[in-house]
Input
Amino acid sequence: MALAALAVVCAGVELVAGRGMSPGVVWDVVHGGGDATARHIFFQLRLPRLLVSLGAGACLAVAGLILQSALRNPLAGPEVTGVTPGAVLGAVTATALGLAGWDSPLAVVLAACTGGCAGAALLWLLAGRGRGDPAQTAVHGVLVSAVLGGLTAMVLLVEPGELGSVVQWLVGTTEGRVWQHWHLLWPWALIWGAGAWLLAGPLTLLRCGDDIALTAGLSVRPARTLALLCAVALTAGAVAAVGALGFVGLLVPHLAVAVFGADLRVSLPGAALVGAVVVCGADAAAQVSSRLPVPGLDAGRFTLPVGALTACLGAALLLVVVRRTPSRTF
Output
């Protein structure tokens, strides 16, 4: 209930924050007033941006919890398993080739999903027989992510005109999201999120180890494959909508398990709620910062990308956790 209330508060702050309208004008628009420009900004820009941030946060958090459960690795997340870098590479490559773009979200989703599957498959091949070792999986995941990031940089060198698009994909932003992005994101998230919840039982067994899962009668390989497919699809949908938001899929699952427990039938929906709150709150903070005077910059044009904020806060939080629990194996 507290998280639901916090989500409402963050959503309210995001709707009234940012440039273009004052909170008083937003209040008038909500109550049926305001001029045509104010109504357009609110209903065609701010409201879909809010919904996309909520949906993308939920997708990344659920994907991270699936990966950590299926791979039994507390450091497994879309950012460090090749899924997010692969999805970014697919989206950027398709954009550079003219096959997709911000004005064609469906093509971006398909390209991002293809890239995410390729990144996950590359990690799976490199891990080899040691894919069950959390430490080796984390190391190989970092290597795969670095390689895919390098390939993305090569695409930028070939198509330097795509600099703005690449930066948006790599950093992650909710700027300029419209209803088309939301109408594409919510059914995608609903379908794959429901599939992930149906796999909650097998995923809970996989968290206990392959031997226990086999003893309980679970077919480990098909269950893990389906789980990874759900994680890749959810990540691809989020990346196609907002780009790569750092640390959301890595740290939010730990918070969700701590709050809702280890039963994934409960913690998977809980992770979706926590992820939505985190991304929505970060986006609200980013929009509030756009109203602050920045020395040396045009305050009217300064906008902090939400991905930069989640990356900085996530890195700081991870550092605090590691320093406070030095004996824990990550």
About this structure: The first helix runs from residue 2 to 16. The CA atoms of residues 68 and 76 lie 5 Å apart.
